[in-house]
């Protein structure tokens, strides 16, 4: 806490967007440090989690992007695509803003959950995505975040998009060979589409 420049637990909790009562037992050692707490320390303040857990290495990692709550940079939304309440990321509350020049033209950052796109995108990685509005101009074989309407079962997923013989349809495919079979959807069922421009792991931001 002192190393991060916070004088009180209240200020420290505020800096992590947490209630003081949430972190007090962890700081006092009365309960183990939770993974979400570790992730916030890592993501917001570059804390070296290995140092936090074992005392080995440097307390802080040198990282490229700057993470802040001032609305500078690209928003990070800590949401799961499997949440069917999501209609578009513009409706979500940003947890952080990441100012990282290579991806500053993106719409947002998202966490990856599940293994359907492994090894291209592994669970725990963070992807930078840019919204696509013209569904007639797509990059075949590239990975997209896709959201659909009720006619396509409100699909929310990361998939490789391939061309279908019917120009009004798309083929969706996982990159993980253990997830076999294609999904075919009509373009008109797409409610939102985001091209994945790149990825970063939590220990790189």
Explain this structure to me?
By secondary structure, the chain is of the alpha+beta class. Helices cover 16% and strands 27% of the residues. It contains four helices and ten strands. The strands form two sheets. A seven-stranded antiparallel beta sheet has the order 4-5-10-6-7-8-9, with no helix packed on it. A three-stranded antiparallel beta sheet has the order 1-3-2, with helices on one face. Strand 6 (143-148) and strand 7 form a beta hairpin. Helix 1 (9-15) crosses helix 2 (20-27).
CATH class of the largest domain: Mainly Beta
Query: Structural class of the helix and strand makeup?
Result: alpha+beta
Whole-number total of structural domains? 2
CATH superfamily of the largest domain: Umud Fragment, subunit A
Please tally the β strands and state the result.
10
Strand content: 25-35%
Helix content class: 10-25%
**Which regions are unreliable across 5 or more consecutive residues at pLDDT < 50?**
none
Task: Give, in spatial order, the strands making up the sheet with the most strands.
Answer: 4-5-10-6-7-8-9
Q: Looking at the structure, what is the overall shape?
A: elongated
For the largest beta-sheet, the strand count, sense and barrel status come to: 7 strands, antiparallel
Number of helices: 4
């Amino acid at each position: 806490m002192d190393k991060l420049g916070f004088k009180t637990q209240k200020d420290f909790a505020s800096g992590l967007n947490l209630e003081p009562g949430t972190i007090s037992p962890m700081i006092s050692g009365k309960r183990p440090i939770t993974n979400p707490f570790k992730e916030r320390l890592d993501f917001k303040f570059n804390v070296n989690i290995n140092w936090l857990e074992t005392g080995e290495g440097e307390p802080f990692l040198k990282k490229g992007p700057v993470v802040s709550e001032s609305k500078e940079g690209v928003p990070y939304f800590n949401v799961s695509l499997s949440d069917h309440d999501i209609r578009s990321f513009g409706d979500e509350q940003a947890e952080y803003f990441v100012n990282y020049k290579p991806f500053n033209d993106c719409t947002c950052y998202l966490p990856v959950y599940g293994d359907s796109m492994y090894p291209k995108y592994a669970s725990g990685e963070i992807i930078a995505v840019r919204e696509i509005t013209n569904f007639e101009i797509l990059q075949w074989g590239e990975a997209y975040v896709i959201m659909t309407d009720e006619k396509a079962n409100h699909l929310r997923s990361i998939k490789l998009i391939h061309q279908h013989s019917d120009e009004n349809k798309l083929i969706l495919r996982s990159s993980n060979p253990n997830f076999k079979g294609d999904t075919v959807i009509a373009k008109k069922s797409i409610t939102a589409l985001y091209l994945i421009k790149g990825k970063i792991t939590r220990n790189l931001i």
